Amino acid sequence: MKIVRIQDSKHVKYSNEHWKLLRSLRAYALRIMKILLNSGLDPIVHGSIARGDVHKNSDIDIVIPYYTNPFLIENALDMAGISLLKKEIVQATPRHAIKASIYIDERTVVTFPLSKLSRLEREFYRFSGEINSDDLEKNLRVPGVNKKLLAIIPVEDGHIEFSIIGREHEVAEILKVSIDIVKEREYILTRRDEKGRTGVFVHKELPPDMSIAEAALKIARQNLMFRKQLII
Asked: To which H or E segment does residue 134 belong?
């Protein structure tokens, strides 16, 4: 996805089809979030679902933004009869948090850390736009930045969008995040746009019936840097 380096503010009006798609995606996200809430967890959803600028291929990115026992999440979904597609354990670099992801289908994923999130890793979700289940039920939309580096500012009939490049401090104030996360995401996505994606330190795909904790401990026995970050 190519980033947009220069763009003045643009008003995007949503069609009836767009609003229908947004309601459908949010309803499904809320269903999964309530399953997690009923198990004492506190999930958020971030990205286009939170901002409102969805499209037919939009992901439903649900996150538990703090460490919790993977069994609690796996058990909550299992007890609710949710079938799973796959699981993953990923660590971008040795200094980044370890994250586990449970894919319910190709577009719906529940992600949670297996180590402590740094300040910027936590702020990333606010940068992209995040809401909780109460916000979803109130039909709230929040501002955030997409992968094209376009700031998405919800308005009554759609959203206003503009490139964040050259407007970093303004965007930080709008999103109520630090300028550090704005500059970091701008650097990462600009570099990716120019050079393509690079490899990750750890990327382990698991079958849906494998325990995330057991898989993580197995990786830790073979990888010292991974083991230093892992909380389990």
From this structure: helix 133-137
Could you identify the residue written with the tokens 């763009």?
7
From the list 197, 217, 18, 180, the residue with the least C-alpha distance to 98 is 217
Coil, strand, or helix at residue 78? helix
Task: State pLDDT tens for residues 95-145.
Answer: 999 999 999 999 999 999 999 999 999 999 999 999 999 999 999 999 999
- 70: which residues sit within 8 A by CB, 6+ positions away? 100, 112, 114, 211, 212, 213, 216, 232
Q: Sign of the C-alpha dihedral, residues 165, 166, 170, 172?
A: positive
Whether 12 and 161 have beta carbons less than 8 Å apart is answered as: yes
d(CA 130, CA 63) in angstroms, rounded, equals: 9
> Could you give the CA distance from residue 222 to residue 65 in angstroms, rounded to a whole number?
27
Question: What digits encode the pLDDT tens for the residues 178-191?
Answer: 999 999 999 999 98
Q: Kindly report, residue by residue over 40-64, the tens digit of the pLDDT.
A: 999 999 999 999 999 999 999 999 9
Is residue 58 within 8 A of residue 107, CB to CB? The reply is yes
Task: Say what the pTM is.
Answer: 0.95
Q: Report which of 193, 206, 136 is spatially closest to residue 163, judged by C-alpha positions.
A: 193
Conformational region of residue 141, where left means phi above 0, alpha means psi within -120 to 50, and beta covers everything else: beta
Q: Where are the beta strands (DSSP E) in 29-135?
A: 44-46, 60-63, 86-91, 98-103, 108-113, 130-132
Quote the tokens at residue 221.
């026995």
